[in-house]
Amino acid sequence: MVDADQTFVIVGGGLAGAKAAETLRAEGFTGRVILICDERDHPYERPPLSKGYLLGKEERDSVFVHEPSWYAQHDIELHLGQTVDAIDRTARTVRFGDDGTLVHYDKLLLATGAEPRRLDIPGTGLAGVHHLRRLAHADRLRNTLAALGRDNGRLVIAGAGWIGLEVAAAARTYGAEVTVLEPLPTPLHNVLGPELGEVFADLHREHGVVFHFGARLTEIVGQDGMVLAVRTDDGEEHPAHEVLAAIGAAPRTNLAEAAGLEIADRAYGGGVAVDERLRTSDPDIYAAGDVAAFPLPLFGTRVRVEHWANALNGGPVAARAMLGKDIRYDRVPYFFTDQYDLGMEYSGWAPPGSYDQVVARGDVGRREFIAFWLSKGRVLAGMNVNVWDVTEHIQKLIRSGALVDPQALADPHVPLDSLTC
Questions:
Q1: Residues 210-239: pLDDT tens digits?
Q2: In what order do the strands lie in the sheet with 93-96?
Q3: Which of 53, 94, 154, 157 is deepest in the core (most CB within 10 A)?
């Protein structure tokens, strides 16, 4: 039984932390809820940072999870711009703030997220080098892209993952010249494999993006503190006014590691290892969102998922587990993207090497299709491109583990829901 005099502390003010706090109150918890955020902005959602807000289509206030007044109205003790630097598991305290404030917890949730991986090359200290993870990054990059568009400026993006491609689309929409450097042979190679990565390469080429595959950025060249060009390991030099490093994100596990919590192997994405209830190796400490590596029995593995839906759904599950409810986190991984006139949703888990067949239903050339990744006749993942209201059916196929006839799967006249009967 949870008593009113208990204190639940949440470290991390992103979507997972904010939704966990919301859920605690919605479930009737009347004890203290302390939410500690190292940013000065109120908790916000990250997808708009590379989509609507970056494009200038959404106002800044639209990204916040709650109105600023919501936290006081729900008796959430929100500490902005405060960093937690230690957890004492024996005393069950966290230490935070410039003055080293100590606060006791009965249950603790780590929702510390991830941080951009940094380029370890000469020139990263120049003024025109960007990352995109935080709202402040998006503020700066939005102004930068608008200026590049006005001045026919050039943006070089290191990395052809989701962030790199979404920013490329935004930059071209503003009118900037864009070059994307990627050491792998296609965009999104580690997510979609070579079969579907080319779809996104063609999309961006049609909009004027220049790709340079099979090459790694080795130096950013500048003068008077400003970017002039970049160099790659194949000896090429590309002119640039601004550079975006979009080479992935690393889970922010330093706090958990220092506290002696179990950390997942890098093969599973690193992160704080949690069980099906999002509980860490300490039964009073939980983890959710980008930092958590959770078991995925459906695929016989452990994963760490850096996407909006994981934070949206993981925070509430962790909160209910902290309240002692019998709950399991077993969501099928899901994410989405919007680039130019292409909208896409992806469900499942099918990294390269895990599947033996890719089946498409619809018109790939027109970018109106559903792709399925199969292993031994079973659907591991599905991606719908400009085809809507099918996510539920795709996830049902994945969950069923049913053997599926590839010809029926490819036939748009065969209803998807009939394949799981």
A1: 999 999 999 999 999 999 999 999 999 999
A2: 84-88, 93-96, 101-104
A3: 157
